[in-house]
Amino acid sequence: MPAGVTTQVSDTREADKAPVSPLHVAIIMDGNGRWAKARGQMRTLGHKAGVNALQRTIRAAGDLGITHMTVFAFSTENWRRPAAEVSDLMGLLRTFIESDLGKLAKEGVCVRIIGQQDGLPKDIVECVRKAHDDTRHNSRFFLQVALNYGAQADVVEAAKRFAAKVKSGEAEVNDLTPETFGGLLSTHDLPPLDLMIRTSGEHRLSNFLLWEAAYAEFVFQDVLWPDYDRVHLEEALRIFKERDRRFGAVEAGHVSA
Ligand code: FPP
């Protein structure tokens, strides 16, 4: 295989090799607006409370044996929100990086921000760079924040990268496999996704980790994100452990009807 082609995350595991507890958990942190509305407050207050919930969840996740967490902070579609809300969300990310990064770095958390940098305010791009630089040597817990992220765009970018490799002679068309394609996605060096959580009672993926979620278990929890706490994460892990993950296989001894 040509040197320019790497193989990375693709979920072709066998059931007996899957972890009993999820190692990589993704969260769609939904319900901030409704939480604020229920209190007669501005939506921004819900997002602020959402950051506190995220801090609690990161700590609980580390305690509960989760090693990798990917959270959806801002989608490519969220630009359709009022400019003031977009600006407040960017401000929260800036504050999160400025005030929490030092603490997270000391606790051994490696922070990576995925998504398109084009279109982000310059100072946010600088925050992204700082987060990567300050925490890249950490390995106790891996936090991936999806910002200006859309899974379809990520897949399209990966396809373009592969096409460019073919054009330059670095790769051949037949080098493209689920593994090599996974290696071109922004999530390329993370373990396969085990568990996808969405809060607030909605049951959609909303263009989040479409490729990576191929064999993830889905848990939808009827709690608004700002109220999310360790007990909710524990509940999600309990549900996960009850699931029978077969990865498309049939259990030996269960061949006949
Ligand atoms: C969905 O709730 C939530 C978002 C679009 C933003 C999530 C962001 C945070 C939790 C805080 C920022 C994160 C970081 C890393 C600083 P919604 O607004 O769609 O709620 P609704 O469906 O009730 O209106």
UniProtKB/TrEMBL annotation:
Family recorded in the similarity comment: Belongs to the UPP synthase family.
GO molecular function: transferase activity
Organism: Asticcacaulis machinosus
Binding-site list for Mg(2+): 30, 217
Pfam families in UniProt: Prenyltransf
Residues noted as binding substrate in the record, renumbered to the chain: 31-35, 43, 47, 75-77, 79, 81, 198, 204-206
Signal peptide span: none
Described function: Catalyzes the condensation of isopentenyl diphosphate (IPP) with allylic pyrophosphates generating different type of terpenoids.
Protein name per its UniProtKB record: Isoprenyl transferase
Keyword annotations: Magnesium, Metal-binding, Transferase
PROSITE patterns: UPP_SYNTHASE
SUPFAM superfamilies: Undecaprenyl diphosphate synthase (SSF64005)
